[in-house]
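[User]
If only I could read backbone structure tokens as easily as an amino acid sequence. I have put the entry right below:
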Amino acid sequence: MLFISIVLSIPVYGYCIWSLYDPEDSFLFFERWRYKETPEISDLQIKLIRIGSVFGILIVTIYLIVVTLQTFVPSEP
């Protein structure tokens, strides 16, 4: 379970880090084809994307810590 969690969390970390540094491109990921011109993203949207990315990183990190502890800490009989 730990290996699967780590492997599946790698793309989540990648997307969250990408969203921190380039929120406009990550916001339009897989949706750029809908628009003839690139829409403008407000400063509030950029801030919310970055906050969401930080929360995503924190949640995935906490999840991985919990799974790791459950894997390596022996359970009582």
Summary: The helical segments are 2-21, 23-27, 43-72. The CA atoms of residues 16 and 52 lie 8 Å apart. The longest helix spans residues 43-72. The mean pLDDT is 92.
